# Entry
Amino acid sequence: MTFNAEALQDLLCQRLCEDIVVDRRPDGDLMLRTHFRFPDGDSFPIHISPAPSGGIRLSDRGHTLMHISYDHDVDAFLDGTRGALLERIVAESGIRQQQGAFCLDTTAEQVPAALFQLGQALTRIYDLTFLSRSNVGSTFYDDLSDCLADLVDESKIMRDYQPDVPNAKAYTVDYRIEGSEEQLFLFGVPNRDKAKLTTIMLSHYHRYELPFESIIVFEDQTAMPRLDLARLSDVGGDMISSLDAQEDFNRKLLRRIAA
# Structure
């Protein structure tokens, strides 16, 4: 098959122009309607206004974060691992974040390129929502910390606790939680390596007869090799299959604290 490059280019230019709609808003600013869309089908509203320093400003006027807020806590989204990744995207894309809006200043001649630049950045930012509990281990501890904060007062939570055992620095507890008769240790287990490490730690506590109770929260218990899971079960206490098992997490944690 022979491609006619010039005909293809003419067709692309024609269709792209047809698919981009420019609306004038009541405040006088323009809004571009493009093929950039969120997963639910809503389009990215790209607003065009004069830039304070001259030229033209493209902005989402906060719509991206508003859309994210429908299913996510925006404050949590802007913190931790996702927050760091968002800052990286902003820096790499050359856009700016101002009062919840993402914008890009450009010249009239560079508007087409800037439109794709901003659209690509907004797509990458929204895609951070897919760094969920079930997909990326790097956000697991952020999500676990959020779940704990929703149930237990911050003053009762101690992170990276060193228990009263020999060589305590090598056997730190993810979270020590006050409120139960015996000290309550909570471990997050996002992968096989952490499962093995937690087994070693719990065995060390038992060896020195440390009084404690434990809760083990998996990112995905079904992904754990059977033998590793069996060893951890032998030395651990309550187990929660994943953070998606919210009711189980709440029940087991609150029961321990209330005991």
In short: The domain at 137-258 is CATH 3.40.1350 (Trna Endonuclease; Chain: A, domain 1).
